[in-house]
Design goal:
single chain, alpha+beta, four-stranded antiparallel sheet, glycosidase, signal, carbohydrate metabolism, hydrolase activity
Length: about 625
């Protein structure tokens, strides 16, 4: 479910449609080994999935730390809420309560994003390791955290393993995902006929397509090419930046052990779906990609994918979706070349066909008004999609026509890192790959320099913020602020890969602190990570808050985060007038602050894998 780019009129109409649907408790066949509550620390559940449920009331503390932990050789910073104008004493204590480091805070003053008086603490000079440290400032202790060189290794696995139980068209095996086993969703035997033969929106085409597979986009049952594109691209990019580490990273999925890196197996599940969304040969718009496929109306909470009764509909093709397909397929072609040559060739054919179709139909835009039953994902500026697709095709093929298209694009010399990139602004994806993946673009050194310059801007922002976030928009926080921060950190991490300069590596590690509790709410935004962690992200099948028999989202699931617009009723009622960093509530019905999505977890996956590689 996604509404951030709709007009106000369209938003109101879509919200009205959503809230008009009552919460209904359709049966969801989640399984557990022992009959306990699935996914919430049930006895016998796999440790990688099970996690302790965060109590509803954690004693608050003004000392805000990364509740997961810090690398012993990395930056270690904290923020303290205080109106004091002079430095405060701090002590770092180990598990036994022994003081191992001490010093004084640095007053930072009023933080405009939270409205809080703040101080900062830097205890980076301490290089010890161990568990259950606390930081005490002026007699007040933080929540516990670890100093561990492996602090992010499990997170990298969990963030990527999020995708397996998000799959459509396949039964989720409880042995692979303990507590999350369920029947296959949207297959031929589903109540609505599933995705095996989905008709087009009336009046747009006269055929049906088999669009089974892929990942459910978010907390609803829709599947969207323009969001699938960036998501699968970031998973493949995490492989391209570190192939050896990716090969060693075993994910929870049925393909594990097949001699193909697990992250690529997961990417293939989505790539196969994206190729199915291409208009078949012989049809009027052959080669274009349908924008999305979802229900004709919103389903209620909770609703198991296999129990969905709404009619499915294939939405018209769009230029943006077609170019997402071209970009993702072109990248997929080169990463699969050494593992499955025939599949790589198929993907390249799909990519070429899609790019040519987009050139022939450059202004087919999905309307912002189409937001009933699924997000609209409207986008009327596709220069960045053309640039991204041409970049991936050039890197994969080396052909001059694609290089010429890249260098002639208005995006090529624009500042694609001025704001955080996302599904609607994808020029940065092309720029990052042109900078890091081998190619002979004539001005490649300028491209690489632009990435470093972008990273410097994000690093300067991070270092200026009281809570160390690489994000400081004018006005309020945007929808998916957490993902935008992480995507900015991906730019900083890429600068480290290009230069080897320690400041970029430290910037990524320091920027992650915000996600895991060094923030105005003392909140970790990743399920299962931290003493006070999000656990009620908006989802129709991870709905423990509504039905105790159902699980919370899997460990390693990122919440969208503070959103000043407060589009949903729960957030608008509870958070009216909130300062930007405080515009978040861990409630399943707060879809504007607390949804989960595949592209938010792809940003977490990229950054987590980067951090895991820094040991």
């Amino acid at each position: 479910m996604r509404l951030p780019n709709l007009s106000n009129k369209a938003k109101l109409a879509a919200v009205a449609a959503i809230v008009a649907v009552p919460a209904i408790a359709l049966p969801i066949a989640f399984a557990t080994k022992d009959g306990g509550l699935p996914g919430v620390g049930s006895g016998g559940a796999d440790a990688a999935y099970a996690f302790p449920v965060t109590p509803d009331h954690i004693p608050d503390t003004p000392v805000r730390v990364n509740q997961v932990g810090y690398l012993p050789d990395g930056p270690k910073r904290a923020t303290v809420i205080s109106d004091a104008t002079t430095p405060l004493p701090w002590q770092l204590k180990d598990k036994a309560g022994t003081v191992v480091a001490s010093g004084e805070t640095t007053p930072h003053g009023m933080d405009p994003s939270s409205g809080q008086g703040t101080h900062t603490v830097d205890f980076s000079d301490y290089k010890g390791s161990g568990s259950t440290y606390t930081l005490e400032v002026d007699g007040k202790a933080s929540l516990p955290f670890d100093l561990d060189p492996k602090a992010y290794r499990q997170l990298a696995i969990d963030a990527m393993s999020f995708y397996y139980p998000q799959r459509s068209g396949i039964a989720i095996d409880d042995k692979l995902a303990p507590g999350y086993g369920r029947a296959a969703g949207h297959t031929a035997d589903s109540p609505n006929g599933g995705d095996t033969k989905v008709p087009c929106q009336p009046g747009t085409c006269d055929y049906s397509l088999d669009v089974t597979g892929g990942w459910y986009d978010a907390g609803d049952h829709g599947k969207y090419v323009v969001n699938g594109g960036i998501s699968v691209a970031q998973l493949m990019s995490s492989y391209e930046r570190s192939p050896q580490a990716s090969k060693a990273r075993t994910l929870r999925q049925p393909e594990a052990g097949n001699k193909i890196p697990d992250v690529l197996d997961e990417a293939r599940w989505e790539l196969d779906f994206l190729t199915k969304m291409q208009v078949p040969a012989g049809q009027k718009l052959a080669g274009m990609a349908h924008h999305k496929i979802h229900d004709t109306g919103w389903t209620g909470l909770p609703t198991d994918p296999a129990a969905d009764t709404q009619q499915r509909v294939l939405k018209p093709p769009s230029t943006a979706a077609t170019l997402n397909l071209a970009a993702a397929a072109a990248q997929g072609s080169r990463v699969f070349e050494v593992y499955d040559k025939a599949y790589a060739e198929k993907l390249l054919t799909v990519a070429r066909t899609a790019f040519a179709a987009a050139q022939a139909n450059p202004k087919m835009y999905a309307p912002d008004s189409d937001g009933v039953g699924g997000g609209a994902y409207g986008d009327t500026d596709v220069d960045d999609e053309f640039y991204w697709a041409a970049a991936e095709l050039y890197i994969t093929t080396g052909e001059k026509k694609f290089a010429d298209f890249v260098t002639a694009s208005p995006v090529h010399k624009s500042d694609v890192f001025a704001n955080a990139f996302d599904w609607r602004a994808v020029g940065a994806l092309g720029r990052l790959d042109l900078a890091t993946v081998d190619n002979k673009l004539p001005d490649r050194e300028r491209v690489r320099a632009s990435v470093v310059a972008g990273a410097d801007k994000h690093l300067a922002t991070l270092n200026s913020q009281a809570y160390g976030q690489a994000y400081a928009p004018n006005g309020g926080y945007d929808w998916a602020s957490n993902s935008q921060m992480l995507n900015n950190l991906a730019v900083v991490g890429t600068a480290f890969d290009l230069t080897g300069e320690q400041k970029y590596r430290d910037g990524v590690l320091s920027g992650m602190d915000y996600i895991f509790g060094r923030n105005a709410l003392n909140q970790s935004y990743v399920t299962g990570y931290g003493e006070k962690a999000s656990k009620n992200q908006h989802s129709r099948w991870y709905a423990h808050q509504l039905d105790p028999k159902l699980p919370n989202p899997p460990r390693g699931t990122l919440a969208g985060g503070p959103n000043s617009s407060l589009q949903d009723e729960v957030a608008s009622a509870a958070l009216k007038g909130c300062k930007p960093q405080l515009c978040y509530i861990d409630d399943i019905k707060s879809w504007s602050t607390n949804e989960l999505t595949i592209n938010w977890n792809s940003s977490l996956s990229w950054v987590a894998s980067f951090a895991a590689d820094q040991t």
